[in-house]
Design a protein that fits this description.
The chain folds into five domains: 199 residues, Rossmann fold (3-Layer(aba) Sandwich), CATH 3.40.50.300; 163 residues, P-loop containing nucleotide triphosphate hydrolases (Rossmann fold), CATH 3.40.50; 113 residues, Orthogonal Bundle (Arc Repressor Mutant, subunit A), CATH 1.10.10.10; 93 residues, DNA polymerase, domain 1; 106 residues, Arc Repressor Mutant, subunit A (Orthogonal Bundle). Helices cover 50% and strands 11% of the residues. It contains 35 helices and 17 strands.
């Protein structure tokens, strides 16, 4: 074995460094000693050196299994840059020609190659297995090892086949390396690779320079443009879940004078890699991307990562936010959260195998807990990765900078622990919270859990509150999640001790983001967007006056969200008014003049600096869908057929039609309504809206009767009313 001195000498000789980082040296020594080794280090911790250096020192060829062709190419290029011979490192994957593959094999057989990078798919090919049997393998390194686990954020079935293939080729030590793994995922990886005896090296997951913030998803585009305007010239990544949203958002940012480009798997490869290069070369500031972007992107000065859509798992979130501030400088991680998005993600899971749905659901619940928590985000994040963060206040997340009040919850913790024990520690948090609040769900009834002592003893709080109790008890070490049956709650020895000797426990109430969203949609200037309340009230008064003059309910003139937007943007002419949410050309021409006059006077009298750069310019082609819907309605096509042809749900179609009518376009949908409602019922709803104080569906159903009308009936009639009366 090499002596201490010579290991640093090797490091100096091959890599030009004079010291190791963190646990690198111990992990490298473990590999050189022939141990199975598990390395868990966040990105930027220097994982690759742990297999590169031993490979150069040891006899034979190291087989590095890696999932990404681009990543392999980068690594091979950098290894060749360290050596005088190009033959020191090669990769074997589907991108090579037959003659290139033969060349690689010749170099390996001649003993010139120390590292051979292989895609898991290539490893399983019969001819490659036969070839690898002929060579001396120093060890196998499995990079991005979280791909093995179905609980990891990037599961790949082909990774599950690595162990049997290694056994077929011939046993050598195995090194598994990953940048993100919970205790569950780590256990899965070691079990699947047959290395439960591995020496484990874990670096801290704390990235002290990263600022974490979760915002309610209210007008996210306007918030993003404002944020980027305040951080001009800085590099950033915005993640969206769908390709369509990536394209739309990139275009909207461009229209608003921001240098942004899209990136997703559906683009042609040349454009995609061209966009990536422009970002790396700083020709553009912002990349709008699906999560396909960023694997192996080593741009050290990404200053912000924004999640337009919340990720499906906390591992994914950690990996993606981890692309910010790799140089140790500023890194802001802003995430937009909406319960609707979570429901959408749950909907996407339907139709998948039950086991996969269950895993997806559990991972999503962890993400929801993180988003809604009001305690330090670092504590939650590090706890998820099995690490304890000892400070109560990190000073670098939204919750620590704006602490929420704490409430005494000793009694609630006792009730929660007793409920877990009463169901013999065999159920998940959701089920136990149903028992506590006394919810007679199908599961509760079928297990006869409505007969338990715990049933209903927590009905003085809602599920939301109990979620905070479970999460914060977990962080405090009173309960844990079972590793084999992930999600099942167990009471820890500390939890049992707490039950014997209960003591004060201060609980921080979770955020209620849906309340903020409803408030924003319901009218008063959205708290998060900071509207001008005085102006908002003046606009409401003016609307009332104009409505009276036209003998119409006020909401027909402009709806509350439009007034709220006016109180934020201060439009002072009709052209600017048309950029306000829910105001089209027709509405602006018909009712707008008095509104912009009032705003102009108000701005002058109060010497207000208008955020003109913040009037979000929308993209013209977004209205292609609307134009097509208007044409279809003019041709009297059934709504169901329109929705199907546009590839959207019926509900989404109604939302589009509502937006068209709210903006001032007149539509005649009588042909469709006449099929659904008879004349008498149409009149009843129409008369209701004539007298109504507000235009909400809930109020209408309350007055008209839910058994008489469906929400869709009311929405259709509201569209007709607004179109006939207002446009």
């Amino acid at each position: 074995m090499t002596s201490d001195v010579s290991l640093v000498e090797y490091l100096q000789k091959y890599f030009g460094f004079d010291r190791f980082k963190g646990q690198q040296e111990d992990a490298i020594r473990s590999v050189l000693e022939g141990n199975n080794t598990f390395v868990l280090m966040p990105t930027g911790g220097g994982k690759s050196l742990i297999y590169q250096l031993p490979a150069l020192i040891m006899e034979g060829t190291a087989i590095v299994i890696s999932p990404l062709i681009a990543l392999m190419k980068n690594q091979v290029d950098s290894m060749r840059g360290l050596d005088t011979e190009d033959t020191v490192a090669h990769f074997l994957n589907s991108s090579l020609s037959k003659s290139a593959i033969q060349e690689v094999k010749d170099d390996v057989l001649a003993g010139k190659t120390k590292l051979l990078y292989v895609a898991p798919e290539s490893l399983t090919k019969e001819e490659n297995v036969e070839f690898l049997k002929k060579i001396k393998i120093s060890f196998y390194a499995i990079d991005e090892a979280h791909c093995i686990s179905e609980w990891g954020h990037d599961f790949r079935p082909e990774y599950r086949r690595i162990r049997p293939i290694i056994q077929e080729i011939g046993d050598s030590p195995v090194i598994a390396l990953t940048a993100t793994a919970t205790a569950k995922v780590q256990h899965d990886i070691q079990k699947n690779l047959g290395i439960l005896d591995a020496r484990v090296f874990r670096a801290s997951f704390n990235r002290a320079n990263l600022y974490y913030e979760v915002r309610p998803k209210i007008k996210p585009e306007a918030q993003i443009i404002k944020f980027i305007s305040q951080n001009q010239g800085k590099s950033g990544i915005i993640y969206c879940l769908s390709r369509k949203k990536v394209e739309e958002l990139a275009e909207m940012l461009q229209v608003n004078g921001i240098k942004a480009l899209p990136y997703h798997a559906g683009m042609d490869p040349a454009t995609r890699s061209g966009n990536q290069d422009k970002f790396l070369m700083e020709e553009v500031d912002v990349m709008v991307a699906t999560i396909a972007f960023g694997m192996g992107i080593d741009k050290p000065d990404v200053r912000f990562v924004i999640h337009y859509d919340i990720p499906k798992s906390l591992e994914g979130y950690y990996q993606e936010t981890g692309r910010a501030g790799r140089d140790g400088g500023e890194g802001k991680c802003i995430t937009f959260y909406s319960l609707k998005d979570i429901q959408k993600l749950e909907k996407f899971m339907h139709g998948k195998p039950v086991a996969e749905q269950e895993i997806g659901r559990q991972l999503l619940l962890d993400t929801v807990s993180y988003a809604e928590t009001a305690i330090c985000r670092r504590i939650i994040l590090l706890h998820y990765f099995g690490e304890k963060y000892t400070s109560d206040n990190c000073g670098n997340c939204d919750n620590c900078l704006n602490p929420k009040e704490q409430v005494e919850a000793q009694d609630e913790i006792v009730r929660a622990l007793e409920a877990i024990l009463e169901v013999k520690e065999k159920y998940k948090a959701e089920h136990i919270s149903d028992i506590l609040v006394g919810k007679n769900t199908a599961a509760v009834k079928s297990f006869k859990h409505n007969e338990l002592e715990s049933f209903g003893i927590g009905d003085d709080h809602d599920e939301h509150f109990w979620n905070a109790v479970f999460r914060q008890s977990m962080v405090a070490g009173l309960i844990s999640k079972d590793i084999e049956n992930y999600g099942i709650l167990k009471v820890t020895p500390e939890g049992h001790e707490f039950l014997k000797n209960p003591h004060s426990f201060l609980l921080v109430r979770n955020h209620r983001y849906e309340d903020e969203e409803e408030e924003a949609a319901g009218g008063a200037p959205a708290g998060a967007s900071g509207g001008d309340t005085a102006l908002f009230n003046m606009l409401k008064e003016l609307r009332k006056k104009i409505a009276k003059r036209h003998n119409l309910p006020p909401f027909v003139i402009f709806q509350d969200p439009s007034l709220a937007d006016m109180s934020i943007q201060y439009p002072i002419d009709l052209e600017e008014l048309q950029k306000i949410q829910g105001v089209g050309q027709g509405k602006a021409q018909r009712y707008g003049k008095e509104f912009v006059q009032l705003i102009k006077k108000y701005v002058e009298e109060n010497e207000i600096e208008r955020p003109q750069d913040l009037i979000v310019r929308t993209i013209a082609n977004k209205s292609k869908m609307k134009v097509s819907i208007i044409q279809s309605i003019d041709r009297k096509i059934d709504f169901e057929d329109i929705a199907e042809s546009k590839g959207i749900e019926f509900d989404e179609l109604l939302t589009e039609v509502e937006a068209i009518v709210n903006s001032g376009t007149r539509l005649n949908i009588d042909y469709y309504i006449n099929e659904v409602l008879d004349e008498e019922r149409q009149e009843e709803v129409f008369d209701y809206f004539r007298e109504a104080q507000d235009d909400t569906i809930e109020s209408a159903l309350e007055v008209l009767g839910e058994d008489e009308y469906s929400a869709e009936d009311i929405r259709l009639m509201r569209i007709k009313f607004l179109s006939d009366m207002g446009n």
